[in-house]
Write a structure and sequence with these properties.
Elements (H helix, E strand, L loop, with lengths): L3 H11 L9 H13 L3 H22 L21 H10 L1
Length: 93
C-alpha cells in the first residue's frame, strides 16, 4: 500500500544533492572549533561554580528547623474527602 507521502519521499530520494552541501561538514566543524576558542564558556563555568559554592555555604550557615511527623492516618475511619466518603455522601442526597 503506497500513499502520497511514500511517493513524495521516493521522489525526494531521487533528487541529486545540492552543490552547496559539498564540504558542509568541514565548514560546520571549523565554526565549532573557532567558537571553542572563545572565553565565554570558561568564564561562565567559573561564575556558576562560585555561585554554587555561595549557595552551598549559605545553606550550611542557615539554621534549620527539625521536621515533625504527623500522626499516621487511621484505616478504620476514612477522611471526609476520601473517594468512598464522597461517593456515599452523594448517594444519600
Amino acid at each position: 500500500m503506497t500513499t502520497d507521502i511514500d511517493d513524495a519521499l521516493h521522489a525526494l530520494g531521487r533528487v541529486p544533492d545540492h552543490a552547496a552541501l559539498t564540504g558542509i561538514e568541514d565548514r560546520v566543524l571549523a565554526a565549532i572549533d573557532a567558537r571553542r576558542g572563545e572565553t565565554l564558556g570558561s568564564r561562565m563555568t567559573v561564575g556558576l561554580a562560585v555561585g554554587a559554592l555561595l549557595i552551598g555555604a549559605g545553606g550550611a550557615a542557615l539554621p534549620y528547623r527539625s521536621a515533625t511527623a504527623s500522626t499516621p492516618a487511621s484505616f478504620a475511619a476514612p477522611g471526609p474527602l476520601a473517594p468512598s466518603s464522597l461517593l456515599l455522601g452523594s448517594a444519600e442526597r
